[in-house]
Structure formats: structure tokens, C-alpha cells
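#lab-general

N.A. 3:47 PM
ok so I finally got the sequence cleaned up, no stray characters, all 494 residues accounted for. can someone with queue access submit it? mine expired

B.Y. 3:52 PM
send it over

N.A. 3:53 PM
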Amino acid sequence: MKSRTLFHHIFLLAVWGITFDNVAARSENAAGRMLPADTSRKEVPIQVNGVFPKMTVMTDGVGSDSEAGIGALIPWANKLWAIGYVSHIKGKGLGLYEISEDMTMRRHPASVTGTFANRMVHWPSGQAFIGPHAIDADGNVRTIEALKGYRLTATIRHLADPKNKVYLVGMEGRLWEADVHTLEAKLLCNLVKELEIKNAKAHFKGAYTGQGRVVVANNSYDEKEFLGQRDAGRLAEWDGKNWTIIERNPFVEVHGNASGSSYGGNTIFATGWTKSCVVLRVLARGKWLRYLLPKASHSWDHAWNTEWMRIRHAQTERFVMDIHGMFYDLPPFAYGGKVWGIRPICSHLRVVPDFCYWRGLFVMAGDQIDHDQGQPQSGLWFGNIDDLWAMGKPAGWGGPWWQTPVEAGEVSDPFLMTGFDKKVLHVAHESDELVTFTIEVDFLGNGMWKEYKKLVVHPNTGYAHYEFPDGFSAHWVRVSVDMSCSATAYFMYN
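B.Y. 4:20 PM
back already:
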């Protein structure tokens, strides 16, 4: 915490040009006369540990019984742009904000109050898209009039005409294409119908274009999914003609590295979850891989509670991933078609709808006060990316199986093991026979699995646990059984 305090002191002194006015007031010129204080200097914005009270978005009036979040951030046209959101387009007073280098913020005259969390720079046309707006390199703002009444959650590259068009995804499942010059929008399809989402409210959150396909995420999830009565969540891809469902679990984010094959083939990452763990799907050289991660909190176990859990470039060619109360260092590579090097940074309870880098600062958006706690409002946090390490020590739980029917010889998906202190595995089965659970580890992260230990679980108890030695770690761990049964394999990391 000392380093964080020192950082903010240096930040105040160096970045915002704060001077010792009392000293300046007594300074002398070359003739030895006292000089008056510089009264023309702007008032310095008040900040507390990287939070500026004046830099807060709020809904107006007692009729704004909604939330007031900051859905997206993007550095552009020498400013930091932010887009606010209310739930279900209810409320008033939010919109598009521009933040200047003197740390002042204004609501732009073109603002539209709505539910927006999309952002993308379209380099061919020299524009940034955020919410229903297109901002040129000089900061001039235009609005896609046809879409300002929809809950926009993603803007992504066009498959067929990337120089002149973009795709936009709405939370309810509409997919549009928009001309970047005229801003005319055309509805292409309804993803609810295309992806067979039935008896559930669609909640599309993320999308990305790469490897010749569009990948979309829908995170519909409540108690019905938890109890196995419905599977409305989706991760799906589109080649411009046909839709393919990849997984029927809730997914919230899709992101990738557009740097080309030298960075591992434009790897695409998608984050979702089941009731037992976080799911990380990776598209590496045309093949979808599946990895599992622990949850740091169950507070995100509902579609509405996920605002918005991103994967972003936190610095050049470096990803930071936020999912279920945990920040991760996520290398953007998939060398040899494998993923390794993922490590937890911290556990947290903060809702972070977006984060980015701007003028040397790591900036996090927020969704902090809902209407049931008072006037809806949220702010921004400015600091150093390394401050994340001080937020909370990595801890979590999860596993590949939660009373899951498995076949004899079935091997689980890889579960993340590195970056946590104490590690315990709980195993259980519901069978009248003796079941042996085999633990394997991949300590290189390249798919070279080695048997580590066997746990024999008797039918009269149906349960066993294993405490890994202090200091033991590997990139990935997986479990298999020698008998068909209903099995549980659950890790506790603390």
C-alpha cells in the first residue's frame, strides 16, 4: 500500500501540475521583489486514491429508478470518452462523456440516455464507435439515429466489407450492420431465433470478429440454469452464412488479438461459466479449446450481475481478463495450439464494466450505486495497473464436475492451478462401487500430462479430499475416474 500512496503523490505533483502555491506566493523575481501568487491557475480537481468525486455519472430526478453505470471507455481524439448506461433504457441524465487532460469531465451535447456498453476504433474511417455515436479524429460526434433506442453491447469488424461497415450487437439479440460513412443501419438477423434461445430473456454481452468468423456471447442464466432445467446461455459463431452453437452455457465476453499469425493466429478468447466454475474457450488456429478457472465469488452467478467482465489490452499487446471477481494476466498467444501462462492477479468485489489505459493511467469504469441504495451513480478510478496486485490476494473455488454424470475413463477439462497458495481437492461420487479418481498435472502448459496421484473413494463414504503440499503448483490439473458414476471434483484455493 505504501507504493500505491507514493504513486498517487507523484501522480498529483507531476501529472496535474500542482505547485506549492504558498512557496510561489513568496517567490522573488530577479530584483528581489515578492511576486504575487498565480491566481490564473485552474482549481485542482479533488481526488482520493485515484477517485475524482466530480467525475461521477448520475441519473437525474426521482423518476430515474435505475442504475447508473459506465459501460465503455475509449481513448480517442486527445480525450477519454465514456458512455453511461441505465438498465432497460430507464432513467435520464446519462450519456456520452468526454474527459480532458486536466481531469475535467463534461456530458457531450450529443448525449443519449440509454443502455450502452459497446466501443471500437474503426481505423479505416478514422472513427471511434461508442454507444450509438461515431467520433472522428477531431472529436466531432455523430449519432446512429436508428440505433439510439437499443441496448448496444458490441461493435465489431465486418466480415465482407471491413473498410466501410461494422457490425453492432444489441442485448436482446439483434445484429445490425452499419455504414461507417452514412451511419445507416440495417438489421441482419435476430440471434434469439438463430441460436434457438427459448423461454428465457436474451442477454447478449460480447462479440468479436476474427479467423473469418463472428463470435457472439449470450449470458442468460438464473436458477433454472443452476438447477439444470434450461440452457439459454450461448457461445456461437457465424461465417457470414450459417450460425454454429459452440456451447450452451452463459458467456459474457469475447475478445482477441488482431495482430496476425505471428501472435498465435489471431487467438480468440471467450469467457463464461457453469454453476461449478468459470469457462475459458479459446479459438486457436481454427480449433476451439476449453479450459476451466476458479470463481472468486458467486456474486456474479446471474445474467444481470455480470456488468460486464472484460478482456482488454491493458497495455500494448498484453491482456488483462476480469471474470467472476478475479483479474488475470492473460497472454494473447496460443503457440502450438495451446494456452499457458494464465495467472491470477487479484480477487475483488468491484463491478468493472470496462477498463483501459489513458495518458499513462490505468482507468477502471464502475457500476456502483443502484436505485435501491439511493441516487444511482458511478465513478472512475485512475491509477497504475500494478495497483491491481494490492486489491486482494487470489483465492477461489471451482471444479470440472458438480454431481456430474461421467463415464469410466472420462477425463475432465484442464483446471487452472497456478498462482494460488493453499490447494485442496474434494472428490465425491454417488455409486455403490469403489471409484478411483486420478489426478494429472500439466506443469509446462503444453498438454504434456503426468499422473500425480490416485484417490480411492469407497462407496460407504463416497468422499475423499487431498491437500496439495505447500508450494506445489502446475499450470493445469485434471481428473478422471475409472467407473461410471455421478462425480464431483472441486478445488478450493486460498
